[in-house]
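notes to self, project folder thing:

trying the whole complex as one job this time. last attempt i did each chain seperately and stitching them together was a nightmare. four parts in total, labels are on each line so i dont mix them up again. if this works i'll redo the older ones the same way
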Amino acid sequence: MITAVRKPMEEIIACVEPYDRILLVGCNECVSVCSAGGRKEVALLASALHMHFMKQGKTMDIREITLERQCDPEYVEELVTSVDGSDAILSMACGCGVQTIAARYREKPVFPAVNTTFMGASERQGVWSERCQGCGDCVLGITGGICPIARCSKRLMNGPCGGSTKGKCEIDANVDCAWQLIWDRLKALGLERRIEDIMEAKDWRTSRDGGPRKIIREDLAS
Amino acid sequence: MNTRETDKQSVLVIGGGVGGIRAALDLAESRRDVVLIDKSYSIGGLMTRLDRTFPTNNCDLCTISPHLSESGRQLRLDLKPMTVVEQVEGQAGDFRVTIRTLPRYIDVEKCTACGECAEKFPDWIRFTPGLDPRAPTCMRYPQATPYAFSVDADKVTDFDALQKACKVGAIITDDKEKTETLSVASIILSTGAELFDPAVLDNFGGGQFPNVVTGLEYERLMSASGPTLGQLARPSDNKRPARVAWIQCVGSRGINRQDVPYCSSVCCMYALKEAIVTKERFAEDIEASIFYMDMRTCGKDYELYLNRAVNEYGVNLVRSRPHSVVEDPETGNLVITYATDDDERHKTEVFDMVVLSTGFRIPASTRELAGRLGIDLNEHGYAQTSGFSPVATSRPGIYVCGVSESPKDIPETMIQASAAAAMAGTQLHLEQDTGAEEEDFPPEIDVSGQDPRVGVFVCDCGPNIGDVITVSALVEEVRSFPGVAYAEAVGYGCSKESMDKMESLIREHGLNRVVIGGCSPRTHETKFQDMMRCCGLNKYLVEIVNIRDQDTWVHTDRPADATRKAVKMLEMGVHAVARAHPLMEHSLPMNQNVLVVGGGVTGMNAALILSDQGFRVYLVEREARLGGIARNIRATLEGDDVGRYITELAEKVTADQRIQVLTQSIIVDHKGMPGRFTTGIQTGPRMHYMQIEHGVSILATGALANRPGQYLLGEDDRVMTQLDMDAKIADDPESVRSMEQAVMIQCVGSREPGNPNCSRICCQSAIKNALRMKNLNPDMQIYVLYRDMRTYGFQEDYYREARKQGVKFIRYEPERRPEVRADKDDLAVCVYDEVLGRSLEISADALVLSTGLIADDETTEDLSVMFHLPRSDDGYFLEDHVKLRPTDMSVRGFFVAGTAHAPKSIRESITQAQAAAGRAQTLLAKQWINLGASVAKVEGDKCAACLICVRVCPYNVPYINAEGYSEIDPARCHGCGTCVADCPARAIQLMQYEDDQILAKLDGLFERMN
Amino acid sequence: MTDSFEPEIVAFCCHYCAYTAADMAGSKRISYPPNVKIIRVPCTGKVDAIHIMKALEKGADGVYVAGCLEGDCHFKTGNIRAAHRVRRVQALLEEIGVEPERVEMITMSAGMGERFAKTARDFTEKIRQLGPSPVKTAARDFRRRAVS
Amino acid sequence: MKTESRLEKVLASGALAVTSECGPPRGAVPEKVKEKAELLRGSVDVINVTDNQTAMVRMSSWAAGILIRQLGLDPVLQMVTRDRNRLAMQADIIGAYSHGINTMLCLSGDHPHFGDHPMASNVYDLDSVQLIQAVVKMRDEGKFQGGKDIDHPPKMFVGAAANPFADPFELRVMRLAKKVKAGVDFIQTQCIYNLDKFETWMKGVCDRGLHEQVYILAGITPMKTAGMARYMKNRVPGMDVPDEVVKRMESVPKEQQPEEGIKIAVETIQRLKEVKGVAGFHIMAIEWEEKVPEIVEKAGLLPRPEV
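result (full assembly):
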């Protein structure tokens, strides 16, 4: 899941201030699940903006819509009638959703209301942690199901470093040392010797370093 | 099943304390008519006077209120306060009972509890009886049932004036004592007991020094609704005490003239509770000391409570029976003189307050009543029952529960009450649920698509509303609200006349929504909902606006403000009701079969009662034969023959046509919802798989005899458990007779890390075996090494007897456990005697270890996973509410009984088996289960399947269904709305409290204001 | 005009404790300011952050959520959830320059009629000191300007 | 001999090697580098030049290394993988080697979180093991990471760090083995205070015969004050300072604490000299370089061999 957190109100207010009619768009996918941009957050943000502008003596017209998924053009198409009556669009989706809207409605300014943070998993109610960096070449099969790229602060491929203390990372005692986890897991699997296999220097072309990536499934795309 | 004459017979419950209420409710819910009488003006008994209850330290009012208001509403329950039994004739199944009701001078039906009479004539009116030292008009608790006043005729000097003061005409000046004769199939005695008045003792200053109070008085001092409004202050100077002492066993476990010999069973826990709450709620630095003889915390998880009191709260325990309490007249402080085991010299200590932990006493009135009922009392004045029929009195058809039977705490009372209800119910034909009660109402009008036509009816409740605001002007203003089709003032809205008038107005004006401006929906919603149904309208289309309790009563001196507020409140109500829509109450057809898991004493008893009531029972037992752990027990402390009892019980069960016994069987899967469960079982030596369908389940899987590898158990033949000794005495008395010296060690494998709780049964087992060994060989020297002797209730008699016969009791501390040394010729136990202050070495022919019970962890774990039931930390099943629902489990339709719940004796297990059978009948008595309408509902297409509802639900109800969205089973939803408020997709609504209804209230409040 | 300012206050009260306590205050005739209007909910766990925000947006000067004492929630933990939500709304209000003190979580038991009344008094007094909600005043001033 | 490295020669001679380090200045002050290096002349064989130590910007290690080389002393180029990708690192290696730097130490480096540029991007294109592999490949195969041949490959004597005290301890020998497998020539360890634990580790190392495949230089850091001992014990990740050491520092008056610290360092060296597999000492006297000669002398490691 992609996780996000709402931007500070000050920043959001600065974006929408010049306008009178705002279309506030939520997304019912990842950002709903991480409670950053679903219907609930849309309503809360709308209410907060209303109040802020009422304080300024301004009546802000805010229309709330939450789409099933903001990163698909068909869903984004549903906004077509509402967009006309708005001066600007405020999106609570991740960056993918914001860009899909921006691409479709070129004549309207689009602002993000959340900061897209990471691809993560939920540890428990209200706690999400980074789990994947989308490197494009998954190594989880040899690291016991724990990703050193996403979860080691130094993304060491041959850890742990000398800062691993009592299972925690040297940068923060609340962060697990990924290599401790990998080691524990390999031990549990009876694969201790694997830790001595050198992971060769990674080819980062499959990652962001290779330029913006795209997947084309010929069978589906045609 | 016996066929019995069914001339509209009922069960008579005498005494309206928690036990009586529970028994009456159980009977009413299982479709038996019941008459609940109490000599007092309103029901509730002792519990409503407590501040908070252990072990949760919860506030009682919140937990008991549903019980009390429930009892006011039950159709089959006839509540008769101020009523006593005169005479009982006839026999079980056919008693004729004459009862006498004292005049109340107030018509309960008409009284609205407005308080007008009490306001004018405070001396003449009783709202609540009791020990409360405040004015008699005070409300002891807000949920008083019946919700009405009563008149103290002796004090009234002018009945006419009183009559004029009551605007509803509820005063009956010529009210007379009434006598009537009831046709009764069975009777439950639950009159409870009094608490000992320590004023008769001369050494503790009770009733003499102001700062010496009883435990109950102390509860009142702590209580938010007590005389000091929750400010703990000592009586002499209203200052908060800094040092408080409790003295245990005041008037109990004694041999002096004023003492009773038995143990009152509850005082240790309540003293601990009071000490904890004192520190927790008032000030951590208040010093709390408890002077005690034995700390008897042998209930479920009570030992943990004791540990918490000592370790977390720093409650100071002093093992000593103090000699005296003397007051320093200057300061009002109290000096306690006492001596301890390790130091016989008298010590003194000064306290600001002393609390006397007084126990139960049977009042003389109960002895009289017993005479009229024709039942035997034991030597202590409690109802005599037999070992294997714990709630049956000496007279067939008359049952007993609660403290009338023996001293006990609230959960045990609740268990026994349900048991008594079940047994009393067996005397009465179980009526088939024909749904007749439902059919009194006309068919519901379909209001969908209709624009709201709201009718507003405003009560004046006499002066209660009418004197503060001008109702007619209010109504005038309401008429202008959008959506209001009709508005009218209706005087006393809840009077019969007004209700009739409203009904016809609703019909006449084609109203499809109603707002009542009157009193609290907590007390009157049901009444007006019924009115709606009479009009053919869904009961959820009415909104009650609480103008009386929350406006005119509290703004009496500001009529203009009160009027403005009433307008706003009504406007909120009108807006909200306009958004209301008809709701369906969920109901399910009830499967009438019962699954009983576990074929021990508990399971067999539950199965037999339910089979006797006509239900099909599947009794699943893991072993090849029935009987469970009790097969290893030969006799009880009271001397009953357990072996014969089990054999007879098993024969009865096996012969019963309606009970299908499945031995060598285990449960392998389970699905369904309350009332419609399907459980998979593998049965027989070949593990044949079968599925059974059942409506309720009773878990009676028992516990295991503990055999920890301590003190050479299992290594040396001379070392054995109490169970082993029990068998040896019965099977090989000669070898026991030849013993010259025997040692018993208590708390082996209990009350220690790993198994911190008390096993409850070991002290009585030890006493039982010691007495039987003495019986075989009076010269035998028996030493019992113990930590606390926990012979609660009447077991104290046997403990005293054992001491009398020369059994020696030596206390040890867990830090200095006894040690055992053995060689071929000699077995010796070395123990440090805390009293003598030195070590003793005792050689023994037998070392008997009191090893108690441990949870059958594997079984309870498997079943808890399969049935989604919680367990306690030590592996016993966890009941739904440790205080008030000790037999019900958190999943509706599941009940727990016997040692699967907690360690307990055979007798206690039988009681809970009966209780479980009784509780099961409250569901089985109905063909349909009404699940209410206030449940959370998911809009699937909005759901993001985020799992938040799944995680926040306190009852683990929501789940993600096969279609990939959250689903909430209305049968299991409790209707709290937590998932609704946390849903990030706003995909869930709580029926009856939907978002647009709440927002509409805000609109109603603010719309015309801005 | 602040001299005669009478705040509008919404109290979301749970059925089992706070609402019962309010009735108790009534039975005991303990007076409290009429500014407080009660909305009954089954449990404070049902009180949505949006309800609180909307109350302020629509014109409330203060909102409090009143539930059972900690550990006494009839539905186990609803009051704790509510307390978390109240804190979250407070933070959001702070971000838009509305005093977070306008929103509060309060707990009491059913028998605490006295406490209910005292809470109503204290909260009303607090809001009176804070003055009218900035949301409301600006909107009203604006309307007035627009009219003139 | 794989290289021209002075360190390799000393180690090959069988003598106990002595290395020390010098942290470059936080400014364009080449004199500082030279001053510090001069303090060590004659007392040590080679001088490590740290690379943006503790994630703080300093003069680059290769530039400072060249300054030291110009004095006729032998620098060890420390290189962390935190700040540069493999393009930059290979370029720097060739550049340094062109100026006569023939010994280097491959490290991953402290996380930027600890330094004064926590906002900096955290590169880690390679980790330390992969850097060892890269340098060895440059030297032995004459190839860049991209596979192309190097015109005059740099012949670096390759070192790496080892921390015998970090968690999980059971992994510490294995991790050394991994570096050996990657082709490392010498190891400089984390500062040693817990001698028992170090010896346990060394035993594990010797049991696997790793001491025969790599030279292990035991890390020594003299403590100046009891406060420093406490700080290292409690605040520095991966540092193991036993209570006795802290107590010993605390037991002497403040003014005598530096002397006590040096005494401990000397005693440590003396004890470790006897430990199988220890091939020398790496003395890290942080901002206290002037004391290195004293320690080396008192530990009986003088004179340094001529090679």
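what i see at first glance: The first strand of chain C starts at residue 9 and ends at 14.
need to look closer tmrw
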